[in-house]
Amino acid sequence: MSNLPSEPEFEQAYKELVSTLEHSTLFEQYPEYKTALKVVSIPERVIQFRVVWESDKGELNVNRGYRVQFNSALGPYKGGLRFHPTVNLSILKFLGFEQIFKNALTGLNIGGGKGGSDFDPKGKSDNEIRKFCVSFMRELSKHIGADTDVPAGDIGVGGREIGYLFGAYKAERNRWEGILTGKGGNWGGSLIRPEATGFGLVYYVNHMIAFTGQGSFKGKTVAISGSGNVAQYAALKAIELGATVVSLSDSKGALIAEEGHSVTPEDIEKIATLKLKRQALTEFSHQGKYKYIDGARPWTHVKVDIALPCATQNEVSKEEAEALVKSGARFIAEGSNMGCTQDAIDIFEAHRREKKDAAIWYAPGKAANAGGVAVSGLEMAQNSARLKWTSEEVDEKLKGIMEAAFKNGLETAKKFVPTKDGEFPSLVAGSNIAGFVKVAAAMHDHGDWW
């Protein structure tokens, strides 16, 4: 791969998967899977295009648009669209690569992909965002479809953007079909979809806690990073289950609850309003119960039982991982994609092996944050059947999917990763192997490798 430009985020995701496969007995038992790894690491298709749009001042602007259609062995490509100035091919390849195995762990028939643009919605009017979405979808519509590729939202792409994109697709292709998930509730969207990633994360961690014999979220102190949908709904569900949430964050810094205070559902409602207006969290530092620390993340400023990174990639460093271990945290699970650096994961995994049942236990995003894409898959099913399920029906299906993802990773780790007595199984290795094997087996059946 030396002839290719450096893609640090993708290379990190690839190495993280490979390291767990190589340190398991998988290749010893099934050496042919080494060939599958070579094939699955290259996208089936990468689409790149220009997006030209006009500002309210009549100025012409141009951005880059992308769709990485990584793997369709298990079903149509499925994964979000991200509108953010940092978007590049490396980031989208990393996200698409992770998405392959995350989607496999849901048990649903969906492949993996990711897309987006380096367009920044911040500071843009609704009309400018609409114009950009129309131009973006004019090209993307040539490459997606209900049985081909079904994008969803991601950073910078919420309900408003999904609406504009869907309307543009419908006008361009003259058909109403479930080509996007995260749609409005009155035009094909699924109930529980906005909550799904955050709720699913908490359901997953609840199984981790129960497995260790430490009860449930009740009475636990929780640090959460981020303040978007994932963080908000993870916080609300954790509070509902009896936990105390002591932090949130945004791209500029961390919001930390003062001693004796905690995040409340009322605070989260106000923060959600701020986020819709694309405003910072600094306002909350003036309310007497919070301090806002510029340029910080929560992990070194709180003492907690559970840490839930829910913002973006690489938001827990080696030093922050060491601080969480030293403070006595017992569980860390990623609500974001690749939320921990490889150095941080190494710290957590070493502690798991050394301290056994007294260790911190780490869960990777490809398993712990799979709830969002799981309910996106359920939205696809509802669209195909022209049905709408109740909140209770969707929530029960989500709980079942997260339980199955936890048990799958757990049992796969026991099968392929040797452990000592009293040692928790490696959820990162188990999840990686379980997702990889499922996709590789389907690819083999299709003749993609032999």
Automatic annotation (TrEMBL):
GO terms for cellular component: cytosol. GO terms for molecular function: glutamate dehydrogenase (NADP+) activity; nucleotide binding. The active site is at residue 114. InterPro entries: Aminoacid_DH-like_N_sf (IPR046346), Glu/Leu/Phe/Val/Trp_DH (IPR006095), Glu/Leu/Phe/Val/Trp_DH_C (IPR006096), Glu/Leu/Phe/Val/Trp_DH_dimer (IPR006097), Glu/Leu/Phe/Val_DH_AS (IPR033524), Glu_DH (IPR014362), Glu_Leu_Phe_Val_DH (IPR050724), NAD(P)-bd_dom_sf (IPR036291). Keywords: NAD, NADP, Nucleotide-binding, Oxidoreductase. The keyword Nucleus does not apply. One of its GO terms (biological process) is glutamate biosynthetic process. CDD domains: NAD_bind_2_Glu_DH. PROSITE patterns: GLFV_DEHYDROGENASE. NCBIfam families: PRK09414.1. Belongs to the Glu/Leu/Phe/Val dehydrogenases family. This is Glutamate dehydrogenase. It comes from Mollisia scopiformis (Conifer needle endophyte fungus). The lineage of its organism: Eukaryota, Fungi, Dikarya, Ascomycota, Pezizomycotina.
